[in-house]
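Protocol step 4 of 6: structure prediction from sequence.
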Amino acid sequence: ALYRPDAAGSLSPGRLLESDAGFQKYDPSWKEKAPPLWVKLKFRNSLSREATYRLLVKSRFFNRLDIHLPTATGKHRLVHSGAKNYDAKTKLGHNFVYQVELPPSNDAVLLIYVDTFQDSLRVLDMSLFDESTYQNHRTTSYWAFGLYFGAMLALIFYNLILYLNLRTPGHRLYVAAMVCVIILMGLNSGLLQNILPTVLQQRSPVLLILFNALTAAATARFAQVFVNTQSYTPRFHRIISLTIGLNVLVALPVSYTHLTLP
């Protein structure tokens, strides 16, 4: 892989694809502190037919992540995965999934512009799978997710039945908290994100922020009722209530603003 710092993000992708001028080898210090930069990966397809691979990029919050994917025609397809510019895409587990097509008996270049929130390349974690390996990985992942979500749904329905019979606030809040958890995990694992309408897929990072906040609030409120903090530790109870209020107060306006942006 070759790298070229570009703090302003103003370099032309077309020229970068054509030439290696200005690129350099990896600098180990970028694991701790890295400027926004271009990453250039080269592939060689020695087969006499088109080869298809799957690029998996670990799901993280990026200021900007532009990926120029090679196609079988020799041209490139641009996809965005940044905070302000996010395209609908397939997701598997904690990975974004992109299709990489290599022309027969030819070279191909993958070009990525990355600007991380952490100013570090440590969060840029990528893997490349051939189609059969990817499908096996996908099947294994869905089996694991199925077991997890099956157990969660069983707990939700069990406590919902208890609430309908006993009408206790603890069971009601447990159901609310677990519903938030299962939606959050569904978005994070890609199971829900892949079936959302395109307009919501494009707001997927914001939905994750929103349901993180709602999950934390609902879980904390359940803990208050379950432990009865109001009776045993009233001061701590007020601190938790204040934290819940601030958490939701910050998350809701931010989520609403981003969800309504064109």
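Step 5 (inspection) to follow. The chain has seven helices and nine strands.
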